[in-house]
User: Fold these one by one.
Assistant:
Number 1:
Amino acid sequence: MALDKILAISGKPGLYKLVTQTRGGFVAESLIDNRKITVGIQQNVSILSEIAIYTLTEEVPLREVLKKIKAKENGAPTAISHKDSKDKLEEYFFEVLPDYDEDRVYASDIKKVVQWYNMLQKNDLMDFEAPKASQEEEE
């Protein structure tokens, strides 16, 4: 499953898989406990494929950052936990993305990326490739 079907819902822990659309929003399934919830259109929802990380030169799509973590860890869970200290998280992220903008990427952002990667890895959702339609549009 591609990242354009994985959601982060404000105020809700973890990540969610888009199941279906409804008239007033959509139904999503938690990657933590597989419970289904109804999400209204008024809730703040982020699609993982639309998230990017600031670097000193550009914004790098989350998909590319997750690919770099996957390559660093050989597809295994991260060597650090999202609960580690701010310094450990920043040091780890510097190894993954050396030119990330330390002024605009906070420890809480790094914590989320590490947690999301581990959650996607645990649920075998490691397909970080761009959808075929958008690749054709770029060419």
Note: Residues 107-122 form the longest helix (16 residues).
Number 2:
Amino acid sequence: MRQNEFSAPSVGDGMESAVYEPELGQLPDVSEKDAEKVNTTGTTTIGITTDEGVVIATDMRASLGGRFVSNKNVQKVEQIHPSGALTLVGSVGGAQSFIRSLRAEVNLYEARRGEDMNIEALATLAGNFARGGPFFAINPILGGVDDDGHHVYSIDPAGGVMEDDYTVTGSGLTVAYGTLEREYSDDLTIDEAKQVAASGVKAAVERDTGSGNGVFLAEVTEEGVDINGHKDFDEVL
């Protein structure tokens, strides 16, 4: 039988299999020198679960190669689900594309099934996208609320999905984790969790050059997602 001339080559044809490869041409290789020109978020992002919901906090800085501040007012947490939010960590373009893709899948799921995707399924989908898609250097936090409870997941660049009571990602994580280890408890109210998360971001921006310029706080409950930015940490501490 004659092979369809438009069919994708198989691995046996000497071609690597890649689900997200373009139909024509190939994805560009990004060298270390090229990476220095990419807008990156540097970043400190924090997710905390409470009995009332989930709190996500991020700084506001974007940089070029970690050496030049290219934007001082980046919103690094976005709503992607009626009761779920995701942070932007890594390259700005890759993170924005990742969020658009997940939003589309969430909307498609609701349209087909007449119900919202649960957060565990969304985390699994995010991990699959991170592992198989052309999303450059992402390491987001997913926080959400569903019928099974309140959830915080970290998604690593290789597609690993890990749930925890609280987590930190980004270049300022080592400093922020110290603050959370000291201030976190499992009986925090959502307002107390906001203060703890903001405190963690503030500690990170003091030492991490990739983080700075304020804090965005997202409050995620069964009623939805509320995101607010604060240039002055004293507004929330």
Note: The two ends are 71 Å apart (CA to CA).
Number 3:
Amino acid sequence: MIIPISDIYKVFAQERVISIIPVEDNPVGVAYNPSYNNVYVANHGSNTVSVINENNVVVDTIPVGDSPFGIAYNADNGNMYVTNLFSDTVSVIDDSNVVVDTIPVGNGPIGVAHNEGNGNMYVTNFISRSLSVSDENNVVVDTIVVRGLPSGVEYNPSYNNMYVTLFSSESVLVLNEDNVVVDTIVVGFSPFFIEYNCFVA
């Protein structure tokens, strides 16, 4: 379907910037915590996470590992998970905005996502060319080696699958509930991030 430019303009003309929120250096990842209605921002250059409330005010700044990049919410325990790119770890932040655990993963963790089906967290290790899977106890229970440079990862609740972008392979891997690659989708050049669209499921 081709959307006329006039219709696109009508949609985007109604959008406007309502607030500019100062955080720390090089903000990269961002995720919403519905339990407390806060937004968490990974500040890659400051080794911190900024917490923003419903009034668009930074209410907390949390020290994490070296060069935080990706961040995701775990609906099972209410915690936030932050990948630390140069520490090869994931920081776990609880409801008090305190780092309560640090999970060793592969080399160069970037993306992170929660699998609502099995309760596990999935982390893409860019340099190691692998995915680390951690359970409810924050223990790595599986390491999935892939052929390419994994970057983004996302859960699709409609099919109970994980989708992983391979930056170097122009493709997206589809993993089933047993962490087995069941499909490879060819996409465009250097895919990096990925997101689930709940409106078309």
Note: The CA atoms of residues 117 and 160 lie 6 Å apart.
